[in-house]
Amino acid sequence: MQVETSTIPIPPLTRPLGRHIGTGPGMSQAIAQAKEIGCTAAQIFPGNPKGWRHTPLPPERATAGRLGWAEAGVAPLTIHAPYLINLASPDDNLYANSTQGVRNSLSRGVELGAPFVTVHLGSHKGTGPEAGAARLIAATHAALEGMPDWLYLLLENNVGAGNSMGNTLDALGNLVRDAAHPHIGVCIDTAHLWGAGYDLTTAEGVDRAVSEIDRAIGLQHVRVLHINDSPMGLDSHRDQHTYLGQGNIGYEGLAAVLTHPGLAGIPAILETPDGGPEEELIRLRTAALLSAGDAEGARAYQEAALPTGSDESGTVPGDDTDGSDSGTAALP
Ligand SMILES: [Zn+2]
Ligand SMILES: [Zn+2]
Questions:
Q1: What percent of the chain has pLDDT over 90?
Q2: Is residue 322 pLDDT above 70, yes or no?
Q3: Cα(173) to centroid of ligand 2, in Å?
Q4: Span from the CA of 7 to the centroid of ligand 2 (angstroms)
Q5: Which residues have a beta carbon within 5 Å of ligand 1, which is an ion?
Q6: What is the pLDDT of residues 15-67, one digit of tens each?
Q7: Would you put residue 40 in left (φ > 0), alpha (ψ -120 to 50) or beta?
Q8: Which CATH number fits domain 17-330: 1.10.10.10, 3.20.20.150, 3.30.1390.20, 3.40.50.1970?
């Protein structure tokens, strides 16, 4: 079906907005893709999200990458640390690998000029939140040692499953407070808030959730948003991501998140299935309409441009079901 959508005006962006981009085919391809679909922010993995191996970029490739992202208009570039990381692990080997994994991710940030590195909080594996917190906080300090002062390590909220660390906003806030490091902040993921029981379907619900984030953590610590819809139930403690507007949060709720004054200007990253450049251009324009507060316009635009129907591929596993994770690895 061919629908004329090019006449729908897309509002100017109110914040840096973009998506997770796979770097499997190479950094220059990733940069080209981000530019083609209109990203003004983006997220990449520092390497294989399911492996420990890390190779520093040769200086000339780091410079080319840094310039490439900047010239594509992506600011900020953000990095998502690998899923294997568990900074609260009682296993000394995994703990050491995890600490080094975060340090490697931060180093990739330095190489590429990416100021934000997001990490999952992992699981205490039954040793209890206090023991987990002590290890997690020591690891974050070790990983940040000697890093430049424009670089931030962001702890991501999760759906609150099992033994996961930071399983409530209060627990996440306590970690940030106890870490007491000027370069530790948080990344808030809307699908994870939903899975943890924060109803984001209405402006009132969103306002309550933002008030809770402010009370428990402090909005000044929120440096990146992951803007995802969820096909799972409210408070299900399950983590799946789907296209904006087409999950249980919906257009009105996501527009309320993106226009909430407490979250103004914070870069927003989509971690939804990557349908390729033509589709992702439309997904990002839908997000731009939401970010301008036009929920109805976003719905009309997306439904006309990408009619839903027999396509079953609309969800990806989210990224932290359990603290042990295999996640948005479904993304390229
Ligand atoms: Zn996320
Ligand atoms: Zn994540």
A1: 88
A2: no
A3: 17
A4: 35
A5: 189, 226
A6: 999 999 999 999 999 999 999 999 999 999 999 999 999 999 999 999 999 99
A7: alpha
A8: 3.20.20.150
